[in-house]
Amino acid sequence: MRRVKIYDTTLRDGTQAEYFSLSLADKIRIAEKLSQIGIHYIEGGWPGANPRDRDFFGEIRNYNLDSSLIAAFGSTHHKDRPPESDPVFQELLISQAPVVTIFGKSWNLHVKEVLRTTLERNLEIITHSLRYLKPHVQELFYDAEHFFDGFQADPEYALKTLEAALAGGADCLVLCETNGGALTSKVVEIIKAVQARFPEAPLGIHAHNDGEMGVANSLAAVELGVSQVQGTVNGFGERCGNANLCSIIPGIRLKLGLDCVSDDNLRRMSELSRFVYEIANISPNRYQPYVGRSAFAHKGGVHAAAVKLNPRAYEHIRPELVGNFRNFPVSDLSGKSNIFLLAQTLGLKPADHDAAVQAAAEKIRELTQNRHQLKEADILQTILSKVKELESQGYQFEEADGSLKLLVFASLGKGKDYFRMLSYRIVDQKVGDIEAPVPEATLRVRVGLNEVHTAALGTGPVDALYNALLKALIRFYPRLVEMRLEDYKVRVLPGATGSTAAKVRVFIESRDAHDRWGSVGVSHDIIEASWLALVDSINYKLYKDEHPSLGVAS
Amino acid sequence: MRRVKIYDTTLRDGTQAEYFSLSLADKIRIAEKLSQIGIHYIEGGWPGANPRDRDFFGEIRNYNLDSSLIAAFGSTHHKDRPPESDPVFQELLISQAPVVTIFGKSWNLHVKEVLRTTLERNLEIITHSLRYLKPHVQELFYDAEHFFDGFQADPEYALKTLEAALAGGADCLVLCETNGGALTSKVVEIIKAVQARFPEAPLGIHAHNDGEMGVANSLAAVELGVSQVQGTVNGFGERCGNANLCSIIPGIRLKLGLDCVSDDNLRRMSELSRFVYEIANISPNRYQPYVGRSAFAHKGGVHAAAVKLNPRAYEHIRPELVGNFRNFPVSDLSGKSNIFLLAQTLGLKPADHDAAVQAAAEKIRELTQNRHQLKEADILQTILSKVKELESQGYQFEEADGSLKLLVFASLGKGKDYFRMLSYRIVDQKVGDIEAPVPEATLRVRVGLNEVHTAALGTGPVDALYNALLKALIRFYPRLVEMRLEDYKVRVLPGATGSTAAKVRVFIESRDAHDRWGSVGVSHDIIEASWLALVDSINYKLYKDEHPSLGVAS
């Protein structure tokens, strides 16, 4: 089976994306993860251009990345200085990276206007740069910058630059679609021309996404036989980004059936994507192909029913192959079949639960027209109405499974009040510009027959309130010590008046040793919205611990 | 020039996206916008499946959408009921839409497992459905659902379904890549086979993005000659979304040079994209091709310098063609040339400002090695260091231009304190589950020689604080009445401990009649972070009004 090697440039080209910045420690952690997932080459940076990148190459030598090779990136040597006396160029050797990738100019416009030299001199620079490095490195790649634009401007000259790179000893000619706007048909045509001229030369592809064709262009190149694909995790990169490896790697394995990373590592693709978003502190794109949280979400009732019968009906691959999962979000667009599936996961048994979902959904729709005929149908209808009503107030349950399940238990008459808030008060005071603010919360709650009154400080008002609440509850519910808040998100909903008066939605993700769950609260007051989400989070923890047989835990 | 017509399904297929919901009013507003931009067909919904969609067709008749035709979507008639007695099917006529699009099954798997009928009966249903509608509509389209999967499973049968649609009178056969995972090469191969069989039939393409190839597949189909492209604004849609019209339309106009929308309307593509994000209350994807805020952002110093010389160096199209703009974000990765451009926009005149930027950047780099030689270079260095320091605390200035400019004025020794906070105190109290919380702020500020002490309520604590601040300042600075807070965003930064203790970044967007500006604040305490952003927002308003000659307003 033909093998395609992956060259990741998240740590170099990826960091050219606006809002995407990585510290040295971040870069080391991402390199480790890429290595664990079997990425063949990891480009660490441009040591001559960026001091932080220089540090990376020093530091990464302390790590064992057995399945990956580290690459250093750099330009051809300075037009007026030979390699030996070009300090930026020399950094490539100082980096001690086993792989070096040199980029050079393919486009006559760039040679003349940006590099400001002659076409002939550019060819010499390419050859000399590579020839100088060749004895010092394990593998040597040539990135032909703007190759596709260059070929369209002057095909003969663009091909000559590749000839110059081969003469310098390049192990792979990586054709770069730097400006990212080429059509797939054009990419195919030009790669074929290169292959006609250099039938023996190993080729690579480095595409960008400015025309939203980065993945298609990369996969088209692979179909034509290129052996190296450059890209970034989640497609981070300058402007609209680089070609997205989280889509390219599954494409190579699952669509083209070629060797690339192992099946086990392919199943870590969603993990890799989320890891990099997390480190960069960027909200994941939930619609991202293969790895996004919505990538296998079937919101339409008809689709959800069909997928339950046969996932191939509306899924191009099985989500588990890339470590993702199918989901059936709740929404007012969804048919009853989504609710049916939700009810099943909650241990309910709606009518005809042994029949196919479509038939059951039909049945429930029919039954709910006569609301008193069947209790389970009533319950589903009640849940649907309640969800709709709360959604109209700004709630969203798609990630707040904890809040949603509590709502379902309440509709079943199985809800439980573990505690009741009597009052809370937040005082947050700041004196002058220098002193830190002092947020304090006082809280009165009733737990059974006990009334508890606590006070606590925090780093902010919500933290103070959370601390006061835990202080009040922990002696009654000691297992709350197992709970951790993993994420706290605030979304401002559109308001009619000035924006500080708008409604906010707070979403909290919590976990313990066994489960993760989400909860949600909505209010004009951010403290109240946070309080509501905190209460749901704690109630869900207590409820699921008390009802292990319900199978409510995810 | 060959013409390609655009069929927008944002209002129908788009709303199948998780987290993307539109009210009836939203749908009307989007339809109006699509019409203004010259989109040829606007699919309003599936009137038989969704009561809200039925209302849409009733309401939209009150609007004059002169350049667009409204389309109603529906399935073929029920397998056991003729069109006349199928109530879902009848809704298509009730809708009075001038265009109707019927989808039918092309894939034998779907016919058998989902539709649950025979292959032969499916063909009859397709023909009968279309034939029944034909006399009642202006144009009649056939969506061949799962055509590409169907063709791969059984090419002869898939072609027969198209034949059945032509027999029923379909004006266009729209080939649907419903599961979204087909490679571009496969799409090309199959369209060629359809064209070989039906050389006269007008074809359309409806692609999804599950393999991240929705745009490439659509444009490949256009290159082969299809005359209709279906897609959605921003690529919203079930799972990973539909093919993105905001990339396809520029591709058709600027890459393929075909007739589609006018040049004037093409320049409204960025506006269209943001309008739909805004209505759906979804944060825009800033990396989105063509229309994203980062689509023409040149963060790397080398790229920024080259683009200043010749935009073609790193831009595949001129951003203004799609109503977008070039930007040079500030970041620690950026070379001095970005700061140089920033300084220019602030009315500074760094050394060699008449020379090319590259030369100037070189010069500044050289000068800043000797920090006391040139004052302007010092200032740039000071700004760079301050920005870096604040970024390490969690600040981001890429959208907070107001805060950034204030920082620059301060570095120039041109800052001004319009007021000074002496202390504030927030009290937010809630009693029981039912009563609304009562957030109250008290504030002491000094303005010149006056000390002002105010108190105010608000819908939430930040709103109360803002009200107290305006109350304190308005009699000294009456022009603050012109100011509006347009957006208020909270981002939780990753924290070492439990998440309610994490740092938050607050971003505020403000405007008056002339300008818009952003400001930012970071703290562990959300109230303090909001305070800092509010203060910057007000200071920037006061500063710019006082210094019209500085040209600081955007």
UniProtKB/TrEMBL annotation, chains A, B:
<keyword id="KW-0412">Isoleucine biosynthesis</keyword>
<feature type="domain" description="Pyruvate carboxyltransferase">
    <location>
        <begin position="4"/>
        <end position="270"/>
    </location>
</feature>
<dbReference type="GO" id="GO:0009097">
    <property type="term" value="P:isoleucine biosynthetic process"/>
</dbReference>
<dbReference type="GO" id="GO:0043714">
    <property type="term" value="F:(R)-citramalate synthase activity"/>
</dbReference>
<comment type="pathway">
    <text>Amino-acid biosynthesis; L-isoleucine biosynthesis; 2-oxobutanoate from pyruvate: step 1/3.</text>
</comment>
<dbReference type="InterPro" id="IPR013709">
    <property type="entry name" value="2-isopropylmalate_synth_dimer"/>
</dbReference>
<dbReference type="InterPro" id="IPR002034">
    <property type="entry name" value="AIPM/Hcit_synth_CS"/>
</dbReference>
<keyword id="KW-0012">Acyltransferase</keyword>
<keyword id="KW-0028">Amino-acid biosynthesis</keyword>
<dbReference type="InterPro" id="IPR000891">
    <property type="entry name" value="PYR_CT"/>
</dbReference>
<dbReference type="Pfam" id="PF22617">
    <property type="entry name" value="HCS_D2"/>
</dbReference>
<dbReference type="InterPro" id="IPR036230">
    <property type="entry name" value="LeuA_allosteric_dom_sf"/>
</dbReference>
<dbReference type="InterPro" id="IPR005675">
    <property type="entry name" value="Citramal_synthase"/>
</dbReference>
<dbReference type="InterPro" id="IPR054691">
    <property type="entry name" value="LeuA/HCS_post-cat"/>
</dbReference>
<keyword id="KW-0808">Transferase</keyword>
<keyword id="KW-0100">Branched-chain amino acid biosynthesis</keyword>
<dbReference type="Pfam" id="PF08502">
    <property type="entry name" value="LeuA_dimer"/>
</dbReference>
<comment type="similarity">
    <text>Belongs to the alpha-IPM synthase/homocitrate synthase family.</text>
</comment>
<dbReference type="GO" id="GO:0009098">
    <property type="term" value="P:L-leucine biosynthetic process"/>
</dbReference>
<dbReference type="Pfam" id="PF00682">
    <property type="entry name" value="HMGL-like"/>
</dbReference>
<dbReference type="InterPro" id="IPR013785">
    <property type="entry name" value="Aldolase_TIM"/>
</dbReference>
<protein>
    <recommendedName>
        <fullName>Citramalate synthase</fullName>
        <ecNumber>2.3.3.21</ecNumber>
    </recommendedName>
</protein>
<dbReference type="GO" id="GO:0003852">
    <property type="term" value="F:2-isopropylmalate synthase activity"/>
</dbReference>
